[in-house]
Amino acid sequence: AQSVSQHNHHVILSEAASLELGCNYSYGGTVNLFWYVQYPGQHLQLLLKYFSGDPLVKGIKGFEAEFIKSKFSFNLRKPSVQWSDTAEYFCAVNSWGKFQFGAGTQVVVTP
Amino acid sequence: GAGVSQSPSNKVTEKGKDVELRCDPISGHTALYWYRQRLGQGLEFLIYFQGNSAPDKSGLPSDRFSAERTGESVSTLTIQRTQQEDSAVYLCASSLQVLGGQGTNYGYTFGSGTRLTVV
After folding, report:
1. Is A25 exposed, middle or buried (0-12, 13-18, 19+ CB in 10 A)?
2. Domain assignment of residue B111, given as a range
3. Mutation for B interface: A91, A99, A108, most B CBs within 10 A
């Protein structure tokens, strides 16, 4: 079955630490890849997306993600997190118009 | 059911017709969101329901779009006089939201979407 896996359900780190969230998918063929963020009490917002071209994608708020086709991965990174990055992060795959979301990773950044 | 259920999964309609999309959230989830994704774009927030509070309709793109939710159960998104630019995947999500402070979403779960094509 096609699936999207996020490696961590909960991540706690200190301000200025680096963040990397793993995402693997099991789709074959062409996929569009996304990372979304949901801040507490708010709706989902797009962080970045990959459709084609440069596999290193830069998004908003200093986030970036790298698409590694051979590993079916699309990991999210941020070199130095801030307290305001506390949120839930979702990886998503769109294949043939159908969306599949990962279960989400709750990130807590402590001051 | 175990997940968020959306129907229909696919809908093709003629320009100018009205369509109704349905979302069955996870039982007990107080928060319900509608999003859409048009081809080549990311998710676009449409509307948000939280319990008995007035819905946040700030994302609805025009007055042709409306949504209702009965209590904490089913929601319907209605698009009147559909246009070709309405063609998109419409996604519903639900969560158990804890009110107070900044609020926290638990168990945020998406449905598989309705693919709407306006011809």
Report:
1. buried
2. 5-118
3. A99
Contact B45 A44 (CB under 8 A): yes
Report the gap between the CA of B16 and the closest CA in chain A (Å).
23
Considering its fold, how many domains does chain A have in total? Answer: 1
Domain that holds residue A45: 4-110
pLDDT digits (tens, 9 = 90+) for B37-87: 887 676 788 998 988 888 888 889 999 999 999 888 899 999 999 999 999
Which residues of chain B are within 8 Å of residue A45 when distances are taken between CB atoms? Answer: 45
Nearest in space to A21 (alpha carbons), one of A71, A69, A70, A64: A64
Domain containing residue B83: CATH number: 2.60.40.10
Q: How many CB atoms lie within 10 A of CB A87?
A: 21
Q: Could you count the other beta carbons within 10 Å of the beta carbon of residue A53?
A: 8
pLDDT tens, B5-26?
Answer: 999 999 999 999 999 999 999 9
Chain B contact for A97 (CB, 8 A cutoff)? yes
Whichever domain contains A86, its CATH number is 2.60.40.10
Contact A40 B42 (CB under 8 A): no
Q: How many domains does chain B have?
A: 1
CB contact under 8 Å between A99 and B108, yes or no, is no
Q: In Å, how far is B9's CA from the nearest CA of chain A?
A: 10
